[in-house]
Specification:
454 residues; alpha+beta; FAD/NAD(P)-binding domain; Elongation Factor Tu (Ef-tu), domain 3; 2 domains; six-stranded mixed sheet; six-stranded antiparallel sheet; 13 helices; 17 strands; 33% helix; 16% strand
Amino acid sequence: MSASSSIHVIGAGLAGSEAAWQIARQGLPVVLHEMRPLTTTDAHRTDHCAELVCSNSFRSDDPDYNAVGLLHQEMRRCGSLILAAADRHKLPAGGALAVDRDGFAAAVTEALAGDERITVARGEIDGLPPPEWGQTIVATGPLTSPALAQAIRAHTGEEALAFFDAIAPIVHKESIDLTKAWFQSRYDRAGPGGDGADYINCPLDKPGYHAFVAVLLAGEKTAFKEWEARTPYFEGCLPIEIMAGRGADTLRYGPMKPVGLTDPRTGRRPWAVVQLRQDNALGTLYNMVGFQTKLKHGEQVRILRMIPGLERAEFARLGGLHRNTFLNSPKVLDQRLRLKGRDDLIFAGQITGVEGYVESAAIGLLAGRFAAAARRGVELPAPPPTTALGALLAHITGGASAATFQPMNVNFGLFPPLDPLAEARFRGRERKRILSERARDALDGWLGQAKIAA
């Protein structure tokens, strides 16, 4: 395979892996560049493609009433490698699609390595790709190397925005006291591979909750470097101590909300709950749901062991903090994710300002299809904004304000409204169902157009 005839993809995370797979599915050769293990990051621990560095959850798998579940369904219909690997390595997680992170990443890596049209090239790309490469996808994610980030900034004339992403601790199951904690999903809801008792729940009464919050606020945090001081957090991934600082009950209405749960020892709903979700196929590791933190490691152990059931907790991984970078996409990208002024460069994944594993892979899927069509000399239509794929794409390429652009998860608020009569008639869950049905019909039409473009 000649590198000069290939489409290049920089970054073998979720977006880059998906983009490479989509290009190969179109029968075109692709070179997938990945700097690990020759150059490491603060968050990764392996050289696997699509390694998950934070949660192991792809969130809701409900395609009728949840926008991310609808996005799952659309990606499956588009032949997504990421969703196929997730489905093969799913774990019990209520209504969510959670995966064995090691098995998932290994499956993606094996699939890419086993495709003769895909060449995985290890080594850092430390500047903008040369024009002679032709169609190139930049999918370097939130941990883009400083050299490449600087090259992007120099070309666009825009300072890349940045925020911090915090990682939640992982606990060894055998160290959890199940005489105080219990298994239950909210409202006993069973999800993919689950039985309605997919989470471990650690209850706190009112005095215990307020004592925990007080110690959390007083705990010693990781210090910021001078250049990091004004970097904003992403609202969807706030450290627990930042949430706690917004009010005494913020955590109780956030990751520690007790709704849909009953403590079997009391027969009542507890004041607050810490949930842990299975993190590996063996069921030996559990992730503390929503407990991203920038507490120093010693403080994490001390404070988290105040939680009933975790007094003797042993941690497979403590929480941490890393800096994410992303483009002001509404200003610098066109509607096919191309960098304005460099039509040969397409951006994908979290660097475009989408937030979340699934959203990153979804933009990689679109970028791969756009690049493959462009290599053939045709322009693939964008998916309709009434689909989850199209709504997400439209938001980052013009739907959002460039002046206030921040990372965004897929949600029904990004979808065009229904016609006025339907808007007046349908509310709440029923409206979501109608939006989902409309999205499925619209995707059918786009997939037909995509076949013609191929």
